[in-house]
Amino acid sequence: MKLHVLGSGSKGNCAIIESPTTSLMIDCGLTRKAQKTRMSDLAVDEGKIRALLVTHEHNDHVKGLGVCLRGMHCEGEMPIYCTAGTRENTRYLATYENFSKIKAGDSLTIGDIRVDVFNTSHDVAEPVGFRFTYVGDQPDGSSKIIGYMTDSGICTPMALEMLSGCNLLALETNHDLKMLKNGPYPSYLKARIASDKGHLSNNQAEDVLGKLLGNDLRCIIGMHISQENNSPEIPAREIQTLLQKNDHGAKVVIAGQNIPKTVM
Ligand SMILES: [Zn+2]
Ligand SMILES: [Zn+2]
After folding, report:
1. What is the whole-number distance in angstroms between the Cα of residue 58 and the centre of ligand 2?
2. I need a labelling partner for 150 at 20 to 30 A (CA). Which of 82, 116, 184, 255 fits?
3. Nearest ligand to the C-alpha of residue 197?
């Protein structure tokens, strides 16, 4: 499977997991225009998208829902999967009909992709992350297991378990603590970001990664990088150092807010 990150960060999140027969969209926080342009940049076939999975109700993850789903010619048809808490707190989803409720601990299969749902820790009703496993029979050398977690102040025990053994890990590495501390945000916002229900810092992400450096891990993609309190070079360098220390050969990619990327 491949992971296409169309955009990642506080201005909008949208990604697509693609297997030989099935694509799943994760979050819908870009404008329809950006979504379309970036899918075309990465040669993503929109017609293969079988479902949309929503991690939580923050605007940067759901603000494109209405327009994008209409644009994708599937309003009322595109199946949406999210937790009850996310649905209750997302206006657009409250009346959406083709909706399936998921919760942490669930395991479901869509096409040839199994999705395991785990809880994250964030200041919203019922946030989740996902582990995707390819269960089809056309192995093409790309990733078979992909872990995906953003917007979490800590890595919950269930998340740690679900993120282990992955070939590709998409993990939040949101802020540099020093930059956050000395940065322009008001103190309440700094406290929120650094809290257990905020976002994973670079250091926290490295701690988590340190526990996940298994033999099967081939690629790490740093996600949800803050434009004010981080710089892509910092997590890239720190993760490289961690890998070198552990004599691990995984590739490191940093996702962008505006530059779409495909990893596999
Ligand atoms: Zn976010
Ligand atoms: Zn959030």
Report:
1. 5
2. 184
3. 2
| End-to-end C-alpha distance for the chain, whole angstroms | 6
Write out pLDDT tens, residues 116-168: 999 999 999 999 999 999 999 877 788 899 999 999 999 999 999 999 999 99
Instruction: Record the tokens describing residue 174, joined without a space.
Output: 């949101």
DSSP states along 108-145: EEETTEEEEEEE---SSSS-EEEEEEE-SS---SS-SE
Chain centroid, CA 32 distance in Å: 19
Are the CB atoms for 172 and 150 separated by under 8 Å? yes
Distance 58 CA to ligand 1 centre (A): 6
- Could you give all domains of the chain from N- to C-terminal order, each with its CATH number? 2-263 (3.60.15.10)
Judge contact between 166 and 146, C-beta under 8 A.
yes
Q: Which protein residues have their CB within 5 A of the ion that is ligand 1?
A: 60, 151
- With contact defined as beta carbons under 8 Å apart, do 233 and 201 qualify? no
- pTM above 0.90? yes
